[in-house]
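Hey everyone, long-time lurker, first post.

I ran two proteins through the pipeline my lab uses and got sequence/structure pairs for each. Pasting them in order. The first:
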Amino acid sequence: MDSRELYRNNIEGKIPDELGNLKNLISMDLYDNKFEGKIPKSIAKLKSLRFLRLNDNKLTGSIPRELTTLSNLKVLDVSNNNLCGTIPVDGPFASFSMASVLKTTDSVDQSYKDWCHMTLDAEKNRLSNRR
C-alpha cells in the first residue's frame, strides 16, 4: 500500500499541487495540521486513492468537483475546516453515508442517497448538497 501519513506535524501553508503526481497513492493522511487555502484539484489525478483525510486544518473554498472522478474513494474526511459550498453528488459522493453529511451546519436535502459502505465526514463546515 502506498500512503503518505503526514498528520499532526503542524505543517503550514497550502497543500502542494505536486501531491497529484503520486499516481499509486492509496491513502493520504494530512489531518490535524495547519494547511490553508483550497483543496487542490490535482488530487483528482490520484485514481487509486481510497482514503483522503484532510480534517482539522484551515482549508477554505469548496470540495473540488474533480474529486468525483476518484472511483476508488471510500473515505473522505474534511471535517473541522472552513469549507463552504455544495457537496458533490456524482461519482463516489453518491454513495457516501448520509449520517456524516448531516453534521454540516447547512441543511442537506433528504433525497441524498443513504448508502453505508462509504464515509464522508464534513462536520463543522458550511456545506450542503444543493446544486
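...and the second, right after it:
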Amino acid sequence: MSSTDYQTAVRQEEAYLRQVHPTAEDIPGCMKLFDDFISCNILGVQLKSLYRFGHMSECSRKLQDFKFCMSVKSMHPEEKRDVWLRRRAEWWAQRRLAKSSEDVWDLRTTPISFPPMGPYPNSGTSTIE
C-alpha cells in the first residue's frame, strides 16, 4: 500500500492526465460515453461477465460518466476539460489508494539469479551441462 495521501495522489493523477489530454478535444465526448454505457449493457457483455466473474457487469459508473458529461456540456471547452480532468483524477486517486491485489506482493529490490549458481542437490557438479 502506498504512503501517499489522497490530495497528493489527486495532484499527481491530474498532472498525468493533463499530459495525456493536452487539449479540450482530447477528452471523450458525450456520445462516446453514451456508447460505452450502452455497450456495457449488451447481452453478450453481461453473459461474458457472468461467466468470468460470477456476476453481471456493473455499468453504473459509465452511466454516471454520461450524466456528468451532459451536466457540463454548456461549459466553455477549457473549463469543461478542467472539470473532467479533476473528476477523472479523483477517480484514479481513489482507485490507486484503495486495496488491490498488488497489496499481497512484496517489491523485489534485487533481481533473482537464474539459473542458481551453486551445487545442485544429488549431483557433484555446480553448473548445468
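Reply from user beta_strand_b:
Welcome! Quick read of the second one: Residues 77-97 form the longest helix (21 residues). The chain has a mean pLDDT of 87.
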